[in-house]
Amino acid sequence: MTAAREAVFVIDGERYYSMLWFMAGPCQDWMAALWRDEGKPFVITYRFRYYASEDPFEKKDRRSVYDITLGDHVTEDKAIESVNVVAERLLAAGFAPIGGRGAGIHKVPVRTRDAGIISSALEAQEWAHIQTEKVAAEPGNAGT
Asked: H helices within the chain, ranges in order?
Protein backbone atom coordinates (compact mmCIF):
# COMPACT_ATOMS: atom_id res chain seq x y z
CA MET A 1 0.00 0.00 0.00
CA THR A 2 1.13 3.51 -0.71
CA ALA A 3 0.19 6.41 1.54
CA ALA A 4 -2.25 8.85 -0.07
CA ARG A 5 -0.07 10.74 -2.49
CA GLU A 6 -0.71 14.04 -4.17
CA ALA A 7 -1.18 12.73 -7.73
CA VAL A 8 -2.39 9.16 -7.90
CA PHE A 9 -2.23 8.92 -11.69
CA VAL A 10 0.61 10.85 -13.32
CA ILE A 11 -0.06 11.52 -17.01
CA ASP A 12 3.22 12.86 -18.29
CA GLY A 13 3.45 11.76 -21.91
CA GLU A 14 6.10 9.15 -21.08
CA ARG A 15 4.06 6.53 -19.21
CA TYR A 16 1.89 4.25 -21.37
CA TYR A 17 -1.71 3.95 -20.14
CA SER A 18 -3.85 1.07 -21.32
CA MET A 19 -7.18 1.63 -19.59
CA LEU A 20 -8.82 3.50 -16.72
CA TRP A 21 -11.77 2.31 -14.62
CA PHE A 22 -14.10 4.23 -12.31
CA MET A 23 -17.14 3.54 -10.16
CA ALA A 24 -18.80 5.53 -7.44
CA GLY A 25 -21.20 4.91 -4.62
CA PRO A 26 -23.01 7.53 -2.55
CA CYS A 27 -20.07 8.05 -0.14
CA GLN A 28 -17.02 6.74 -1.97
CA ASP A 29 -15.47 5.97 -5.32
CA TRP A 30 -12.87 3.64 -6.81
CA MET A 31 -10.56 4.37 -9.70
CA ALA A 32 -7.96 2.14 -11.34
CA ALA A 33 -5.43 2.44 -14.12
CA LEU A 34 -3.38 -0.10 -16.01
CA TRP A 35 -0.06 1.42 -17.09
CA ARG A 36 3.60 0.73 -17.64
CA ASP A 37 6.86 2.52 -18.12
CA GLU A 38 9.04 1.70 -21.15
CA GLY A 39 10.66 -1.73 -20.81
CA LYS A 40 8.91 -2.52 -17.52
CA PRO A 41 6.00 -4.81 -16.62
CA PHE A 42 2.43 -3.55 -16.33
CA VAL A 43 1.28 -1.97 -13.07
CA ILE A 44 -2.26 -1.74 -11.77
CA THR A 45 -2.75 1.34 -9.59
CA TYR A 46 -6.06 1.69 -7.84
CA ARG A 47 -7.42 3.92 -5.15
CA PHE A 48 -10.44 4.17 -2.93
CA ARG A 49 -11.69 7.64 -2.01
CA TYR A 50 -14.12 8.25 0.85
CA TYR A 51 -15.88 11.60 0.57
CA ALA A 52 -15.55 14.22 3.29
CA SER A 53 -16.33 17.18 1.00
CA GLU A 54 -18.27 17.93 -2.18
CA ASP A 55 -15.13 19.55 -3.64
CA PRO A 56 -12.63 16.86 -4.74
CA PHE A 57 -9.79 19.41 -4.72
CA GLU A 58 -10.22 20.47 -1.07
CA LYS A 59 -8.12 17.43 -0.08
CA LYS A 60 -10.42 16.56 2.81
CA ASP A 61 -11.37 13.14 1.41
CA ARG A 62 -9.65 10.03 2.75
CA ARG A 63 -7.84 7.99 0.11
CA SER A 64 -6.00 4.70 0.05
CA VAL A 65 -3.78 3.94 -2.93
CA TYR A 66 -2.38 0.58 -3.99
CA ASP A 67 0.06 -0.49 -6.71
CA ILE A 68 0.38 -4.04 -8.04
CA THR A 69 3.33 -4.77 -10.33
CA LEU A 70 2.48 -7.65 -12.64
CA GLY A 71 4.93 -10.26 -13.87
CA ASP A 72 6.73 -9.81 -17.18
CA HIS A 73 4.65 -12.65 -18.64
CA VAL A 74 1.28 -10.91 -18.06
CA THR A 75 -0.13 -9.56 -21.32
CA GLU A 76 -2.04 -6.31 -21.59
CA ASP A 77 -5.28 -8.15 -22.42
CA LYS A 78 -4.89 -10.50 -19.44
CA ALA A 79 -4.22 -7.53 -17.13
CA ILE A 80 -7.35 -5.74 -18.42
CA GLU A 81 -9.37 -8.90 -17.83
CA SER A 82 -8.05 -9.11 -14.25
CA VAL A 83 -9.01 -5.51 -13.43
CA ASN A 84 -12.44 -6.08 -15.00
CA VAL A 85 -12.98 -9.01 -12.62
CA VAL A 86 -12.05 -6.88 -9.60
CA ALA A 87 -14.38 -4.08 -10.74
CA GLU A 88 -17.24 -6.53 -11.32
CA ARG A 89 -16.76 -8.05 -7.86
CA LEU A 90 -16.79 -4.62 -6.23
CA LEU A 91 -19.99 -3.80 -8.11
CA ALA A 92 -21.58 -7.14 -7.14
CA ALA A 93 -20.68 -6.46 -3.49
CA GLY A 94 -22.66 -3.20 -3.63
CA PHE A 95 -19.78 -0.75 -3.88
CA ALA A 96 -21.51 1.40 -6.52
CA PRO A 97 -25.26 0.88 -6.10
CA ILE A 98 -27.81 2.28 -8.50
CA GLY A 99 -28.32 5.90 -7.54
CA GLY A 100 -24.66 6.47 -6.66
CA ARG A 101 -22.67 9.11 -8.51
CA GLY A 102 -21.86 7.55 -11.86
CA ALA A 103 -23.37 4.18 -10.87
CA GLY A 104 -21.86 1.18 -12.59
CA ILE A 105 -18.40 0.51 -13.99
CA HIS A 106 -16.97 3.13 -16.33
CA LYS A 107 -14.13 1.93 -18.57
CA VAL A 108 -11.97 4.32 -20.55
CA PRO A 109 -9.63 2.55 -22.98
CA VAL A 110 -6.78 4.80 -24.07
CA ARG A 111 -3.83 2.58 -25.06
CA THR A 112 -1.36 5.44 -25.51
CA ARG A 113 1.30 7.48 -23.75
CA ASP A 114 0.07 10.69 -25.41
CA ALA A 115 -0.95 12.94 -22.50
CA GLY A 116 -3.31 14.96 -24.69
CA ILE A 117 -5.27 11.90 -25.79
CA ILE A 118 -5.48 10.56 -22.23
CA SER A 119 -6.53 13.93 -20.81
CA SER A 120 -9.16 14.39 -23.52
CA ALA A 121 -10.56 10.90 -22.86
CA LEU A 122 -10.84 11.71 -19.14
CA GLU A 123 -12.28 15.19 -19.68
CA ALA A 124 -15.09 13.60 -21.71
CA GLN A 125 -16.21 11.63 -18.62
CA GLU A 126 -18.86 13.32 -16.47
CA TRP A 127 -17.36 11.76 -13.34
CA ALA A 128 -13.79 12.91 -13.95
CA HIS A 129 -12.25 15.74 -11.94
CA ILE A 130 -9.05 16.75 -13.72
CA GLN A 131 -6.34 18.86 -12.17
CA THR A 132 -3.39 19.76 -14.36
CA GLU A 133 -0.11 21.47 -13.73
CA LYS A 134 2.71 22.51 -15.97
CA VAL A 135 5.94 20.63 -15.58
CA ALA A 136 8.98 22.87 -15.36
CA ALA A 137 11.41 22.41 -18.19
CA GLU A 138 14.63 20.63 -17.29
CA PRO A 139 17.93 21.08 -19.15
CA GLY A 140 17.55 19.22 -22.44
CA ASN A 141 13.79 18.87 -21.97
CA ALA A 142 11.23 21.26 -23.39
CA GLY A 143 8.76 20.49 -20.59
CA THR A 144 5.00 20.05 -20.98
From this structure: 76-92, 115-123
